[in-house]
Each structure stands twice: as structure tokens, then as C-alpha cells.
Hints:
The chain is α/β, with parallel strands linked by helices. The chain has one domain (2-191). It has helices at residues 2-19, 63-81, 109-118, 170-191, and strands at residues 21-25, 47-56, 84-86, 95-105, 125-139, 142-156, 168-169. The chain has a 7-stranded mixed sheet with strand order 3-2-4-5-6-1-7. Helix 2 links the parallel strand 2 (47-56) and strand 3. The longest helix is centred in the C-terminal third of the chain and has 22 residues, at 170-191. The termini are far apart. The model has no long low-confidence stretch (mean pLDDT 82).
Amino acid sequence: MKKILLKFTTLFLGLSLVTACVGFRSNMVPTVNKENVKLKNNSTTKKNIFINWNYSFPAIVSDKQALSLHKRMFSDNLKLLDCCTITDNKNDADIVMNLTIDNKANSASVLFSVITGLSLYAIPSWIESKINLKVSVQKNKKSYDYELSDSVTIAQWLPFIVMMPFKDNALKAEENMDINLYRNLFLKMDEDGVFSKN
């Protein structure tokens, strides 16, 4: 009987740790699915893009890892457009981007997350992550400026088990938000003709 009770308790705790956590996006920008990342004003010749990255991440995150993740998300979604390649040489670039990522989250929220875990998710906690992208683009002596923001709240509480199938996976919610911002940025750049021939 004790073995069955132990197995049940272990299974319950494991499920709680995985499923009692949901993500709520504020949807400050429209959701752009992978299939909808298409250009209207695409040139047949691929453009070279040089990116100057500036960033500010929360203290709870490694700058190097976070920047590497953002570079990968940017590159992966740029490939969907089939219009450009990223270059490390500014002199070879057709498009020069200054991209500033400002990501804010309250470091103290980690303490509350630990308390939630120790209470077996009986005590709720949440953390809000806000991201702001400021982008200036130069192409053929023309300048374009963009600013996009969004946020996600990741909440932990045992009753959220029932909400799990209907909300964002908390482990992916922040990454999905960031990917969506880059997709919106590319569509705005396309509307302004940044990827066009001229």
C-alpha cells in the first residue's frame, strides 16, 4: 500500500511541477503564425543585413545566453522570408539595423516562485516579463524606425492544471512572444519597402 501511495504522490507532484504553470500574453501586437510570414514587396535579389545588437536583460538571465537565443530567433524567422542573409561586415550590407532589446522582469519574483514550489503549488505566484524592441533601419540613405512591445505573465498555482490545455505553455510563452515580435517587425519593414528592390 505504501508503494502505491508513494507512486501516486510522485506522479501527482511531477504533474504539478509540469502543468500547474500557465502563460498569459498581453497581445499588444497581432499574432503572426509561421504560415503568414510572407513578403509583399520582395526583391528577387537577396539583401545583406548587418545588425548592431544592443540589449538589456534581467539580472536572473545570462546576457550571453539571452542574446544568443534572440539572434537565433531573429535568424530563423528571417529565413522564412527567403529575402536576406545576415552579414558580419557592415560594408557589405544593403540594410543596416540597430536593434535594441530591453527585457524587464522582476528578479524578486524568483523568490516567490520558490515559495510556490515548496508549498506544492498551493501558494500562487507570478512573474511578468516585458520586452521592448527599438529598431532603426537604414537602406539607400533612407531611415526607418520601429518600436514594438509585448509582455507575458507566467503564473503558477495548483488549480491551473485545468487551464493547461487552453493557455500558452509557460515554458514556451516568453519565447513565442519574442518570435512574434520579430515576425511583426519583418512585416512592418516589408510594408515600408525595406526588402524591395530599391
